Amino acid sequence: MSEGAPDRATDRATERELGYIAMRLHVLEALALAVERRAELVDLVADAPDVAAAAAALGAWGLDDAQARAVLDLQVRRLAGRERERLDAERERLVTRRAELGG
């Protein structure tokens, strides 16, 4: 095994972790918006004829498909104060970790 192999493996692991962090922060951004606009969200979903239409309407909020799916999968309990705090804490932890990794 060459001396560079562990470094490449570490680099790949770091890249994977940074990719996960980026994806999760992207979703958390959408969830934060949904929580902030929860009354509008409920109306949007209730007025949509189906899930596809609700997802398309979320596009008007600037959300992409992955974010819209995450918002539509959002459990109502996530709107409770402690759950919102937990989501905020997760976001802060991921931002800190990303900085530690140099991303």
Structure, explained:
It is a single chain. With 103 residues, the chain is mainly α. The chain is 77% helix and 0% strand. The chain has 5 helices and no strands. It has helices spanning 5-36, 38-47, 51-59, 65-72, 81-100. Helix 1 (5-36) runs antiparallel to helix 5 (81-100). The chain starts with a helix and ends with a helix. The mean pLDDT is 91.
> Which sheet architecture does the biggest sheet show?
none
How would you spell out the order of helices and strands?
HHHHH
Query: Which spans of ≥5 residues are poorly predicted at pLDDT below 50?
Result: none
Helix content, binned percent: over 70%
How many beta-strand segments? Answer: 0
- Beta-strand level of the residues, as a percent range? under 5%
Rg, rounded, reads 18 Å
Mean pLDDT: 91
How does the overall form come out from the CA principal axes?
A: elongated
Tally of helical segments = 5
Topology:
Blueprint: H1 5-36, H2 38-47, H3 51-59, H4 65-72, H5 81-100
Quick take:
This protein is an all-alpha fold. 77% of the residues lie in helices and 0% in strands. Helix 1 crosses helix 4.
Main attributes?
elongated, 103 residues, single chain, mainly alpha, 5 helices
